[in-house]
Amino acid sequence: MERFTISLDESLARQFDQLIAERGYSNRSEAVRDLIRGAIESDRQRETPAGHCVANLSYVYNHHERELAERLTGLQHDHHDLTVAALHSHLDHDNCLESVILKGATADVRQFADALMAERGVRHGKLNLIALEAEHHHAHDEHGAAHVHYRPAR
């Protein structure tokens, strides 16, 4: 671990301590590390899509909207290589919330998410994307096929 010191005025320090308490952090260091990771990931997401990612796409839609549910399901089937899992929840008599876990090339995941959120009748769409980096190519034993593992970028 590397240590560094920051200075905060009293008001900002008090607000930060309140945030730490509300979010359940055990200390300031953990909170600062999460803030830094978030800032780095936010900057990374502004860059041109590259590499691989894992993502959660969440959205709300009215299931009475003409053929919308079928169009959304069709899009997911058309991109079955990106779609890992989907969770469907009924919010009320009209609205559904779906959360779709995606994994693949970042450009492909973003393009799919944008297309799905652009469907007429989809509201409150949000993509939470986490960049992945390739570890190494390997096989688990002498009979296994060589493959790559991806882990969240640091």
**Rg over C-alpha atoms, rounded to the nearest angstrom:** 20 Å
Give the count of helical stretches: 4
SSE sequence, one letter per element: HHEHEEHEE
Note the gap between the termini: 14 Å
Which bin fits the share of residues in helices? 25-40%
Strand order of the largest sheet: 2-3-1-4-5
- Low-pLDDT sequence parts: none
Walk me through what this model shows:
The protein has a five-stranded antiparallel beta sheet with strand order 2-3-1-4-5. It has helices at 10-23, 28-46, 68-78, 106-117, and strands spanning 52-62, 83-90, 95-105, 122-138, 147-152. The mean pLDDT is 88. The chain has four helices and five strands; from the N terminus they run H-H-E-H-E-E-H-E-E. With 154 residues, it is an alpha+beta fold. The chain is flat, with a radius of gyration of 20 Å. The two termini are 14 Å apart.
Q: Could you provide a short overview of the structure?
A:
The chain is α+β, with helices and mostly antiparallel strands.
Topology:
Layout: H1 10-23, H2 28-46, E1 52-62, H3 68-78, E2 83-90, E3 95-105, H4 106-117, E4 122-138, E5 147-152
Antiparallel strand pairs: 1-3, 1-4, 2-3, 4-5
